[in-house]
Design goal:
It is a single chain. The two termini are 24 Å apart. The chain is 0% helix and 27% strand. The chain is globular, with a radius of gyration of 14 Å. The protein is mainly beta.
């Protein structure tokens, strides 16, 4: 049986351009949500930082570090798993990576 993926603190997120799942913190604009993002080293369309994967030149969706709570790798294809993971709703860093044990 496969191990379930676990949410990890953003400080350990890969900054190599690979796509990952992130939990975007809740704010006055809405509830917490999961998005697909990647680290961009910056280009003529935007500064270095986290971007939503559906960004396009002329329409860059950037996330500030404090907006992102945690991350996990993209899940592998698994036909028995039809839903995306729920956003992390627990307390901040103490419970990520098992550090609250």
């Amino acid at each position: 049986m496969d191990q379930p993926e676990r949410w990890r603190h953003m400080t350990s997120a890969p900054r190599d351009g690979s796509r990952i799942l992130v939990t975007v913190r809740s704010s006055e604009q809405g509830a917490a949500e999961v998005d697909v993002a990647y680290w961009s080293h910056g280009d003529r369309f935007g500064a270095e930082g986290w971007r939503a994967s559906d960004s396009a030149p002329g329409c860059i969706i950037e996330y500030a570090e404090p907006e992102l709570k945690c991350w996990m790798p993209m899940p592998s294809a698994n036909l028995s798993r039809a839903a995306a993971p729920s956003p992390w709703e627990g307390e901040d860093a103490q419970q990520l990576d098992g550090s609250g044990i």
